[in-house]
């Protein structure tokens, strides 16, 4: 077994072994071939990519993977093979087995459902299923932002065109994969979301955006996913980049993209995987030997070669030649090797690899996963418009009226029963456009033409649902033919199905022609109702208001079509919404919605509050994941000196909380200490409704002098979080009436900082000369426990130099004398107090009120250094450093493994950084005059 720290196991000193671990390869066929066996046994190939061409069923896949791992084990591989798979759901599933593997909506379909929690559960279920057959690396999630959504080949494989929404759902999927024990791989860096296609198959599509433009949009989800620390690998695309600061032919071969942008700027430390070097554009322009070396030189750790054995051997010889020619150093090879071995150690071991649970596990989990699949598809079905109230059809149509279904000729989704049936009958034709080639890279998933067959079962289901006759025919690029005209005249309701009409323009023309016919026939007094269903991209007719009833399903798997039929006939009410900017543009129309706001009730709302906090933790920036350990009780202080009122927006039928707001009033200060909205319910005015009620409650208090955003007691949010979303949050609060700029308002930046490992920190001295400087300044320190032991002097100091809520925090700390204390900094002149800070033992009552002090299950114990109160003087920085040093020593004495200092003013951050503290969270506390809110609704 390779050691992941320090020197590698002696076996890896053989460069042939090391080079084998830097390649990921595949082959065609459902059985182990002599060629793939030779690559594993003699060339020490360490990673395998499985595609639809390798996989017939779950049982066969488990046997195939077990055989591959057995070959590697017997050949002396120290660690198991990485077994990678594209299993994105929707239209991209390499493994299909309708008896054991569940189908789920595409990424965009999941986002249409509006629930990151559901996306997490879908990802976890998907990863659990593929893990059962031996797969340990999913090539996902897709993190591309469709900045030119209507014309991009990725389509519904991507979440949408909003960077924050893509981040939210991408991180949810990534966490779901990780929860199932499978390694993750973001794709397609730096972005396949806005490619410019030049026309020829040999032309490489290019990104024309500048790095600044990419940083504001396309790179946001990658940056956020990397920041979580859960992204194991990154798939680097083969597209070109052309802008004033960069001219790159193939991203995965460029050190500007991999080493500079991905690693140095975004801080990615995991495994970089190249696009397949068998792609015609890459192979033709640079050649596989040179391309393989260039990919590694650029910073890639795994080079992908999908299936051609002769090309794979060429790549191996290319890497060896690169080392011989000293283009690649041994250290460069071992850097990649360490990364790959580290990822393997995180997702597999020999016990797991040689004994996949297979069908025994899949049969147990299939019923629950099938229920999840049905819910996910129901939630994804989106009715964007129904101006004429045609839905459900069983209410707008009489039984004797005829229903016409018009469907295009399409390529069925590779992971579908239809595909398997057609393959078994030998009716396979390859057909792919330039867009499709790049949408699916070189890992051809067997896209096939099925003629009219793909929607035949949809027609049968529609006929069964209405217990009557259905007219069904297909349409092609030949347009509206006499057969279509005759059927349109017969039917009272026409359903037209489109699939990526923006790239198949004949569908747009056909649909508009039929729409015009229906309008003319209605004008003559006939009943002609038109329903258009987009079964892939929702952008087909999203902006065309002439299509009065428009439904989106986001893919056309059997499960999607089943959900569509049930929605059309009223078995459930579709709740899906279009993703990204389309969703936001629709929700703007609802911005004046007023939600019923109720007082928070602990007994009634406790469970809903826990669920809300978990949803927020999953959807928040990584540095706010502490919300997952926040207890709902943290917001209730039961302090006689602080009046508190908390409010909720809830679903009274399901008891789910859609939003929560905590307010406090003490000594003239009215404070909003927290304002939460369920991520799936944002942009629906829930936050505004809560904010309106909170402000009305505060400004009516007798003696109010100030309203404030942010509070240290409880210390969940010290103010507006300062992170990637801070601009939009500040704008939101500004739109709610807050003056965020002096002189109208006050603003100060506060931070939580930490030392991640006190044992490591103990070996490093504080800043050079700190103790001597403290002695020369005549500063001494003592520790106060309880109100009797000089507590009054501490409270007097805090009352003079800080705010009312900080005063109450100190009072609480002094009352908790067994687990908390206060360190005082005193001057040798007159024993005057120069500063104070609260010290909290791990697990103290203060931790319940400050989630940053709570470690998750199995994590290190956290000691707190809370609310330093240091007046502004020339030696204030030195005083704070001394207080922090005393606090760290107290934390270590109480067996804490980590120290967190909370409520640090911006002016003191640099002093703490000099002591080895790192930034944890940053906030902007805002104060306003209550007059600005008088008369608030």
UniProtKB/TrEMBL annotation:
Question: Gene3D superfamilies from the xrefs?
Answer: Glycoside hydrolase family 3 C-terminal domain, Glycoside hydrolase, family 3, N-terminal domain
Molecular function, one GO term: hydrolase activity, hydrolyzing O-glycosyl compounds
Keyword list (alphabetical) reads: Glycoprotein, Glycosidase, Hydrolase
The UniProt similarity line reads: Belongs to the glycosyl hydrolase 3 family.
> Among its keywords, does the record have Lyase?
no
Where does the Glycoside hydrolase family 3 N-terminal domain lie? 16-342
Question: Looking at the record's lineage, which domain of life comes first?
Answer: Eukaryota
Q: Which InterPro entries match?
A: Acyl_CoA_acyltransferase, GH, Glyco_hydro_3_C_sf, Glyco_hydro_3_N, Glyco_hydro_3_N_sf, NagZ_Beta-hexosaminidase
Q: Which organism is it from?
A: Rhypophila decipiens
User: What is the recorded name of this protein?
Assistant: Glycoside hydrolase family 3 protein
């Amino acid at each position: 077994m390779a050691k992941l720290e320090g020197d590698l196991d002696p076996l890896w000193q053989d460069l042939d072994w090391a080079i084998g671990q830097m390649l990921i390869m595949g082959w065609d066929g459902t059985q182990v071939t002599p060629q793939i066996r030779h690559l594993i046994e003699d060339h020490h190939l360490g990673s395998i990519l499985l595609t639809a061409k390798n996989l017939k069923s779950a049982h066969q896949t488990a046997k195939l993977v077990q055989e591959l791992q057995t070959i590697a084990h017997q050949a002396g591989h120290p660690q198991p093979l990485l077994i990678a798979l594209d299993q994105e759901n929707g239209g991209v599933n390499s493994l299909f087995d309708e008896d054991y593997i569940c189908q789920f909506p595409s990424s965009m379909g999941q986002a249409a459902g509006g629930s990151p929690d559901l996306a997490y559960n879908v990802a976890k279920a998907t990863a659990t299923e593929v893990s059962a057959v031996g797969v340990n690396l999913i090539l996902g999630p897709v993190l591309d932002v469709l900045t030119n959504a209507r014309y991009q080949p990725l389509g519904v494989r991507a979440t949408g065109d909003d960077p924050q929404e893509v981040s939210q759902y991408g991180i949810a999927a990534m966490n779901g994969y990780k929860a199932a024990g499978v390694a993750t791989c973001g794709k397609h860096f730096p972005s396949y979301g806005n490619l410019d296609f030049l026309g020829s198959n040999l032309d490489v599509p290019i990104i024309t955006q500048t790095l600044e433009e990419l940083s504001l949009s396309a790179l946001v989800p990658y940056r956020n996913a990397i920041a979580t620390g859960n992204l194991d690998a990154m798939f680097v695309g083969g597209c070109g980049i052309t802008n004033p600061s960069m001219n790159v032919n193939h991203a995965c071969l460029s050190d500007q993209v991999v080493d500079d942008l991905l690693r140095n700027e975004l801080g990615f430390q995991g495994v970089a995987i190249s696009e397949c070097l068998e792609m015609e554009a890459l192979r033709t322009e640079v050649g596989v030997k040179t391309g393989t070396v260039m990919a590694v030189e650029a910073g890639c750790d795994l080079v992908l070669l999908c299936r051609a054995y002769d090309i794979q051997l060429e790549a191996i010889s290319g890497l060896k030649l690169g080392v011989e020619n000293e283009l690649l150093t041994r250290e460069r090879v071992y850097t990649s090797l360490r990364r790959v071995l580290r990822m393997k150690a995180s997702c597999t071991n020999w016990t797991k690899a040689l004994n996949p649970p297979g069908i025994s596990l899949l049969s147990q989990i299939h019923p629950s996963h099938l229920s999840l699949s049905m819910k996910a598809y129901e939630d994804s079905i989106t009715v964007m418009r129904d101006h004429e109230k045609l839905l459900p059809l069983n209410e707008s149509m009489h039984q004797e009226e005829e229903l016409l279904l018009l469907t295009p000729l399409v390529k069925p989704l590779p992971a579908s029963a239809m595909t398997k049936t057609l393959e078994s009958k030998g009716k396979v034709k390859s057909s792919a456009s330039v867009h499709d080639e790049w949408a699916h890279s070189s890992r051809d998933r067997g896209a096939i033409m099925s003629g009219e067959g793909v929607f035949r079962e949809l027609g049968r289901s529609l006929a069964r649902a209405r217990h009557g006759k259905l007219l069904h025919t297909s349409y092609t690029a030949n347009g509206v033919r006499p057969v279509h005209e005759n059927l349109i005249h017969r039917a009272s309701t026409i359903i037209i199905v489109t699939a990526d009409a923006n790239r198949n323009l004949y569908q747009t023309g056909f649909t508009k022609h039929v729409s015009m016919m229906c309008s003319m026939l209605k004008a003559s007094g006939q009943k002609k109702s038109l329903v258009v269903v987009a079964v892939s991209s929702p952008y087909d007719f999203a902006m065309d208001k002439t299509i009065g009833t428009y439904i989106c399903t986001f893919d056309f798997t059997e499960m999607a079509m089943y959900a569509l039929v049930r929605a059309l006939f009223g078995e459930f009410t579709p709740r899906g919404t279009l993703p990204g900017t389309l969703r936001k543009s629709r929700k703007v129309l609802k911005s004046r919605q007023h939600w019923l706001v109720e007082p928070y009730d602990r007994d009634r709302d406790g469970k809903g509050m826990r669920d809300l906090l978990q949803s927020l933790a999953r959807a928040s920036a990584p540095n706010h994941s502490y919300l997952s350990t926040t207890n709902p009780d943290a917001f209730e202080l039961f302090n006689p000196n602080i009046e508190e009122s908390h409010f909720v927006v809830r679903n009274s039928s399901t008891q789910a909380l859609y939003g929560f707001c905590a307010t406090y009033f003490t000594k003239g200060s009215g404070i909003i200490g927290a304002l939460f909205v369920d991520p799936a319910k944002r942009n629906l005015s829930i936050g505004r409704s809560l904010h309106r009620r909170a402000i009305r409650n505060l400004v009516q208090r007798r003696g109010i002098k100030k309203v404030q955003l942010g509070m240290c007691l409880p210390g969940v949010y010290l103010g507006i979080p300062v992170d990637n979303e801070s601009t939009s949050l500040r704008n939101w609060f500004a739109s709610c009436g807050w003056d965020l700029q002096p002189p109208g308002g006050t603003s100060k930046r506060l931070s939580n900082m930490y030392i991640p490992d006190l044992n490591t920190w103990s070996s490093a001295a504080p800043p050079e000369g700190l103790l001597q400087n403290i002695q020369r300044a005549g500063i001494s320190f003592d520790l106060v426990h309880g109100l009797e032991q000089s507590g009054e002097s501490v409270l007097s100091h805090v009352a003079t130099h800080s705010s009312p809520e900080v005063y109450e925090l100190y009072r609480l700390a002094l009352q908790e004398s067994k687990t908390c204390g206060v360190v005082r900094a005193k001057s040798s002149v007159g024993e005057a107090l120069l500063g104070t800070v609260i010290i909290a033992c791990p697990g103290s009552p203060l931790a319940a009120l400050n989630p940053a002090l709570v470690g998750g299950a199995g994590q290190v114990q956290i000691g707190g250094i809370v609310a330093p109160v240091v007046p502004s003087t020339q030696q204030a920085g030195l005083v704070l450093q001394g207080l922090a040093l005393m606090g760290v020593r107290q934390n270590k004495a109480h067996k804490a493994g980590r120290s967190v200092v909370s409520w640090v003013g911006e002016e003191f951050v640099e002093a703490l950084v000099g002591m080895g503290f790192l930034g944890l969270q940053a906030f902007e506390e805002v104060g306003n005059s209550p007059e600005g809110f008088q008369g608030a609704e």
